[in-house]
TrEMBL record:
Cofactor binding remark: Binds 1 FAD per subunit.
Annotated EC: 1.8.1.4
Stored PANTHER family: DIHYDROLIPOYL DEHYDROGENASE, MITOCHONDRIAL (PTHR22912:SF151), DISULFIDE OXIDOREDUCTASE (PTHR22912)
Note: The active site is a redox-active disulfide bond.
Residue ranges of domain FAD/NAD(P)-binding in the record: 3-330
Catalytic activity: N(6)-[(R)-dihydrolipoyl]-L-lysyl-[protein] + NAD(+) = N(6)-[(R)-lipoyl]-L-lysyl-[protein] + NADH + H(+)
PROSITE patterns: PYRIDINE_REDOX_1
GO terms (BP aspect): 2-oxoglutarate metabolic process
Provenance organism: Neoaquamicrobium microcysteis
Residue sites binding NAD(+) per the record: 182-189, 205, 274
Protein's UniProt name: Dihydrolipoyl dehydrogenase
Amino acid sequence: MSYDVVVIGAGPGGYVCAIKAAQLGLKTALIEKRDTYGGTCVNVGCIPSKALLHATEMLLEAEHSFDALGIEISKPKVNLKKLMAHRVNTVEQNTKGLVFLMKKNKIDTFQGTGQVLAAGKVSVTGEDGKAQEIETKNIVIATGSDIAGIPGVDVAFDEKVIVSSTGALEFDKVPGHLVVVGGGVIGLELGSVWARLGSRVTVVEYLDTILGGMDGEVAKQFQRILAKQGMDFKLSAKVTGVKKTGKGASVTFEPVKGGDAETIEADAVLVATGRKPYTDGLGLENAGVELDERGRVKVDGHLKTNVPGIYAIGDVVVGPMLAHKAEEEGVAVAEMLAGQAGHVNYDVIPGVVYTSPEVASVGKTEEELKKAGVDYKAGKFPFTANGRARAMLQTEGFVKVLADKATDRVLGVHIVGFGAGEMIHEAAVLMEFGGSSEDLARTCHAHPTMSEAVKEAALATFSKPIHM
């Protein structure tokens, strides 16, 4: 059987690409080695972690906010087994939904390991070891990423004591002391889950800031907020060893700029130092597909590899390893294969840290603008001055808007605060249309809402805020 397009990998990029291709009339097949669709995101990443984050945020509210709101309850108790059942159920609902979408869009699916034999030829090897060949006009590589480990350090993951993000979703008891290696999004999200459930959490980070790459002012205030919640931070610390011990595990690190090494004993260690593109066993070398120095599939501005008819999207190519970035690339490739003008605007891809409070960002940071020599202006507005935030006891954080000094075009927006991940999208829409801070500030916002802080920050950028 021959296809117009075969997609290898059913993560957010792959399954979205397949759906869009089928919607555009292309005969489409999807290959996935897991028993379920959705890739890392749906099965062991974005979705299950958000289930735990939401549940523990509710616990935090009950423990610290209810009394101030006049709601009197006995001390809440955590049933970890039920909490984990909620996570499992959430994942199952999403994966079953994807099965429905494959059938609805008449996409042929193959379970097994996909391999690129050459342009126009793919093989699928099932669990029984038997392989079958598929002919196709186009191939889309959407195999995602895998845990990266710690550079230069041998880490023996057992997913019980020394865990990756996958194991950190499945602890059968709350660790007394959890050490998180890596102060990025994954480490902070999962660290905050277990901190709310009672763990003492220590974050060890190589850089001198958490959330490397995000706006510096945002990162500093966010670290102070997390420290108030009980999380401890060891920054500018190079991890040199992670080992199991009789009672748990130990993490050894030394100052990046030199100094004596230090060892921390823990009940469990989460290694969250990033991810690497997954290309193992794909046969890319034999097919002549080029990789870059970091093991990513090399693509041009249209997501084409050097081999005609072979494309790549998502975590396996350059760019932020975000599910929604992969989805946009999947849609773009499908549109191009159907003869349309697919496009991804990489300058307007929001990023969110789903902690409490959330952190959200789109566009350039102040550090990036300074480095590029861009003359810009900044406007800020704190949630302490927002009426809805006060009513909800959610006054931590602020909104920052960055705009070009000459044209007033918005170049970046950064938010720390309750619901930041939902508020960031009006900034993304504005930036897609090349809007200015004045455009945003003169757009009527409903009162009272948290989003009024976005309007006020925009006012502060080109004029003066009203409520501060």
